[in-house]
Amino acid sequence: MVELTQPTGREQALHAVPRDDGSAPRALVLGATGYIGGRLTPRLLNAGYRVRVLARDAARAASFPWGADCEIVEGSADDADAVAAALDDVDVVYYLIHSMSAGTGFEESDERAATTVAEAAALAGVRRIVYLGGLHPDDAKLSPHLRSRVHVGEIFLQSGVPTLVLQAGVVIGSGSASFEMIRHLTDVLPYMPAPKWVRNRIQPIAVRDVLHYLLGAARVGADVNRAVDIGGPDVLRYGQMMNGYAVEAGLPQRAIAALPVLTPGLASHWVNLVTPVPRSIARPLVASLQNECIMKDHAVDELIPRPDGGLTPYRQAVALALGRVHADAVETSWQDSEVSGAPSDPLPSDPEWAGRTVFTDARSVATTASPAELWRVILGIGGENGWYSSPLLWAIRGWMDRIVGGVGLRRGRRSRTAARVGDAIDFWRVEAVETTDAGSLLRLRAEMRVPGEAWLELRALPGDHTPARYEQRAIFFPRGLTGRLYWLAVLPFHGMIFAGMAARITAAAEGADSAPADSAPADSAPADSGEPVDSGRSSEEQPDPA
Asked: What is the β-pairing status of strands 452-462 and 163-168?
């Protein structure tokens, strides 16, 4: 497992307290493949816990750097049998899941999952539940998503299992949805028309401090059963947060106009068009900002000591997050969440295609590049690196997807150089990353809005008469007449898109093979080296664990 930045989990104040028999306690993490859970899990391992995770997709969980060090149980939080099996011999449960669906029924789904876990935890004799909820005022009408998070916390507090609910507001760290929304709004817009809530006060918290409190929560006394607020040292208006980002990013401060006409729905459409955050996630984020979200007290200090050196100021958190982005060292991202409404079934094996309508576009190109260099180019496709084809056509397809509520191309990717199962790459999801002596495969599943199911396979194989062969296959299972018409409509563009991709990917690999060894870009250094990132600040500041 890679070396982690602070908190690492090895801090004495965060280390696991052994059981009475001297054995290491066991922690169960629900939501381990999400933004917070993917960071917390390796730090629990460092802290001395035996870690078990409950994941819908065991292969996806296993693809994380910590996957081999954890016990993985496949299942969902609303599956009573899977939850009961996962809770066997567990000391502390971390509940880090929350529906971000914009549709109806998510409150019932949240309640059902929380109730299932709470009842099973009580029966299993779990000693502690830790839940990460949302910071909120007590005397205001809450948005549906924030209301649901409060209700989930109440379910755990009434479960009979000692529970600590940590209520956090805007989380600042590379890859967080809140940070990405601030970042892209500020980067793109020199003048910002904003809803009136832009003047609301908010108490942001750095992701490293959230992880500190989560690790410390497992150590609180057995008699503690309550909700506490957590937040950073700064109380800011949302407009001040955007301009604080601008200062750290070296941009001019933005003029912001608060407009009374921008409803949460209209504002989420605006965010969807301007930032990578899709409307389904933007809406609950925007709605939660309608209320002032600041800590009511500092009762958490009585339960969990603050980190050494104190809590992280907002601008320092921004600088650290930017350093991780520039170093291509983003540990987890909001992109890790599945997209509501997108197909999630894996590609059926070829023999199962019999009897089904399937359209394919297959390309094969022999190349003088080495298989290793060809694979490096394939792994870096999408995001800032682009798709090695017509930028205009890809941009048009991305905007079409955004207009109908899809994720579009602006989502980018977590890392410019690496890919693991479950990663988002623009409007694709990594379904398989395979490397064998016979060759390497990257399979992407489409999360764009299409009338059917689509995949893109890219392979680097040993060549017959050349060092390597590049194979590319687009696969589409149409849904009804609309799906067939869709394929016919895009077919004329395949020659420009897919043929161009094959030619340019192999050319890029050949060009890299012929370049001098010392000409590699500076940002190709290992992402998890743990070395400080020079972002215009003191060399004493380390990258945040995002």
From this structure: unpaired
Which of 166, 97, 157 is CA-nearest to residue 136?
166
Please state the φ and ψ torsions of residue 358, each to the nearest 5 degrees. Answer: -140, 135
Tokens of 215: 């690790």
The answer to whether the beta carbons of residues 203 and 234 sit under 8 Å apart is yes
Find all residues with CB under 8 Å of 236, minimum gap 6, and list them.
201, 202, 203, 204, 244, 314
In a domain, residue 341? The reply is no
**How crowded is residue 452: how many other Cβ atoms within 10 Å of its Cβ?**
19
Flag the least confident range among 62-71, 89-98, 331-340: 331-340
Contacts of residue 128, defined as CB under 8 A and 6 or more positions apart, other chains included, come to: 91, 92, 93, 161, 162, 163, 164, 217, 218, 220, 222
Strand boundaries in 128-225, DSSP class E: 128-134, 163-168, 171-172, 191-195, 201-202, 205-206
Closest CA to 317 of 488, 137, 541: 541
CA distance 191 to 257: 8
Tell me the CATH number at 354. Answer: 3.30.530.20
414 lies in which domain range? 350-517
**Alpha-carbon gap, residue 222 to 160, rounded angstroms:** 12
State how far the Cα of 405 lies from the Cα of 340, in Å rounded to an integer.
Answer: 11
In a shared domain, residues 312 and 400: no
**How confident is the model over 78-115, as pLDDT tens digits?**
999 999 999 999 999 999 998 765 556 788 989 999 99
CA distance 238 to 201: 7
Q: Are residues 283 and 148 located together in one domain of the fold?
A: yes
Same-domain check for residues 384 and 478: yes
Full DSSP string of 151-170: HHHHHHHTSSS-EEEEEE--
Residues 6+ apart with CB under 8 A from 509: 367, 369, 370, 373, 374, 376, 377, 468, 470
Question: Based on the domain organization, do 361 and 497 belong to the same domain?
Answer: yes
Paired strand residues for 413 = 425
Q: By C-alpha distance, which of 79, 57, 144 is closest to 108?
A: 144
User: Domain check: are 115 and 70 in the same one?
Assistant: yes
% of the chain with per-residue pLDDT over 90: 49
**How many residues are present in the chain?**
546
- DSSP secondary structure string, 17-74? PPPTTSPPPEEEEESTTSTTHHHHHHHHHHTT-EEEEEES-HHHHHTSTTGGGSEEEE
The one-letter code for the residue type at 83 is: V
Share of the chain above pLDDT 70, in %: 87
Look up residue 165 and give its two tokens: 């609910």
Q: Does 272 share its domain with 222?
A: yes
Strands 171-172, 205-206: pairing kind: parallel
Same domain, 151 and 185: yes
Domain harbouring 188, CATH code = 3.40.50.720
Residues 180, 314, single domain; the answer is yes
Strand 255-259 vs strand 359-367: parallel, antiparallel, or unpaired?
A: unpaired
- Indicate the burial class of 344 (C-beta count within 10 angstroms; 0-12, 13-18, 19 or more): middle
- Residue-wise over 104-125: b if at least 16 C-beta within 10 A, else e? eebbeebeebbbbbbbbbeebe
